[in-house]
């Protein structure tokens, strides 16, 4: 299903459902990159997204090609690429439309910290 520190490329509806179920169960923050092969900004930010995955353990990074999995893109109301969706506990908590590196990093750090704080306060 993918290793810690890597972006998981999702190619099937069943993979998508399994990844989200696994993340919900573990309580991990999930960052989904809805992308397209023909999208210039998507190609530009892809290496940065991979770098974020390497540098943020405990966060699951998933890439979904909207042309390959258009039913999922439609279900999640994706209308522009790239769109980054942040999911915690099975719920969408934030969305960034566009290849905004600074906003992406800031939101990952903010949501990852709140996940860690919540986990340590209940321990």
From TrEMBL:
Which Pfam families does its entry note? Thioredoxin
Q: Which InterPro entries match?
A: Thioredoxin-like_sf, Thioredoxin_CS, Thioredoxin_domain
Thioredoxin domain mapped to chain residues: 1-113
Tell me the superkingdom of the source: Eukaryota
Family statement drawn from the similarity comment of this UniProt entry: Belongs to the thioredoxin family. Plant H-type subfamily.
Species for this entry: Cucumis sativus (Cucumber)
One example GO MF annotation: oxidoreductase activity, acting on a sulfur group of donors, disulfide as acceptor
Output this protein's name: Thioredoxin domain-containing protein
Keywords for this protein: Disulfide bond, Electron transport, Redox-active center, Transport
Checking PANTHER family in the record gives: THIOREDOXIN-LIKE PROTEIN 1
């Amino acid at each position: 299903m993918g290793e810690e520190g890597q972006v998981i490329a999702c190619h099937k509806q069943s993979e998508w459902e399994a990844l989200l179920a696994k993340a919900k169960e573990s309580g991990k923050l999930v960052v989904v990159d809805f992308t397209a092969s023909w999208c210039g900004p998507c190609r530009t930010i892809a290496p940065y997204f991979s770098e974020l995955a390497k540098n943020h353990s405990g966060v699951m990074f998933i890439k979904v090609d909207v042309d390959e999995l258009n039913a999922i893109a439609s279900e999640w109301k994706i209308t522009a690429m790239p769109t980054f969706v942040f999911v915690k506990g099975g719920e969408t908590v934030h969305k960034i439309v566009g290849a905004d590196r600074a906003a992406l990093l800031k939101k990952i750090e903010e949501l990852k910290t709140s996940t860690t704080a919540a986990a340590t306060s209940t321990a």
